[in-house]
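Q: Please design a sequence for this.
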């Protein structure tokens, strides 16, 4: 979504903002009128993301339009005169110096997502929105700290999968990508993080990066029509899954059955033969 928005948004002037449903602004405490006044007339200068947050920095003052997509939020690029989208909550009209007029439509069926204008704060050498400060960098971020990640694991006796899902340690890894990365690196999801060898942690990080890069190239994992790019198209990484959602099917590596187990209100999928639990 970030990659799709960037060419259209960066350099664009915000010409008009329409808020059709204030539930889309739960993260903007000052309300719709304030939200609109902080955007109209400004220019987007970039497009960034971290974890489930996406943000477009503004030329002035030090702030950004941020979007948290919740369960079903979508950022769609549309022609300026396009008719209303299903579940449309906010429309942002743009004037791009070369592409002309465009609209970003924020649509959200379940309304757990939200937009906001947020101030920027320093996070090491980079600026991030204040609401994103508690989210750790993801492993594809050039400034991700591999040694710091190893140290964080060494101090945690909880299951490695639980640590992978902890946004304060590492972001960008949800349930699906955790299962896929653990399967690829032959690590049992319940193995205590502090029992993993340095080699195993290196292997895990390499597989996380490989899984995330491949999923990004394929537009993400869509099991229904809600996870879409800026053109409304679903990703197709679901066809590349080796463990997730494959309970009872043969492991693509050893042929033994993939096991599905309850895990933190969700499920873990792993191969008990390839992924031995450390104790
Ligand atoms: Zn196996």
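A: Design:
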């Amino acid at each position: 979504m970030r990659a799709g928005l960037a060419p259209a948004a960066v350099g664009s002037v915000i010409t008009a903002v329409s808020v059709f449903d204030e539930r889309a602004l739960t993260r903007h405490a000052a309300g719709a009128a304030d939200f609109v006044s902080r955007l109209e007339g400004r220019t987007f200068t970039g497009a960034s993301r971290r974890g489930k947050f996406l943000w477009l920095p503004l030329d002035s003052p030090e702030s950004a339009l941020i979007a948290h997509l919740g369960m079903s939020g979508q950022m769609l690029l549309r022609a300026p005169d396009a008719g209303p989208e299903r579940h449309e909550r906010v429309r942002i009209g743009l004037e791009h110096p070369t592409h002309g007029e465009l609209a970003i439509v924020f649509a959200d069926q379940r309304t757990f997502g939200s937009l906001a204008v947020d101030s920027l704060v320093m996070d090491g050498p980079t600026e991030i929105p204040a609401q994103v400060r508690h989210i750790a960098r993801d492993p594809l971020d050039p400034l991700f700290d591999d040694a710091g990640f190893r140290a964080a694991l060494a101090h945690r006796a909880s299951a490695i999968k639980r640590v992978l899902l902890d946004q304060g340690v590492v972001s960008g890894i949800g349930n699906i990508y955790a299962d896929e990365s653990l399967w690829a690196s032959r690590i049992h999801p319940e193995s205590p993080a502090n029992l993993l060898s340095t080699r195993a942690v290196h292997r895990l990080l390499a597989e996380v990066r490989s899984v995330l890069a491949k999923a990004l190239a394929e537009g993400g994992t869509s099991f229904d029509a809600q996870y879409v790019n800026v053109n409304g198209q679903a990703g197709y990484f679901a066809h590349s899954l080796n463990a997730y959602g494959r309970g009872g099917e043969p492991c693509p590596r050893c042929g033994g059955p993939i096991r599905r187990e309850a895990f933190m209100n969700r499920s873990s999928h792993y191969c008990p033969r390839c992924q031995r639990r450390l104790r």
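Q: Thanks. Anything notable?
A: The helical segments are 2-9, 32-37, 146-154, 160-164, 175-184, 198-217. The longest strand covers residues 114-123.
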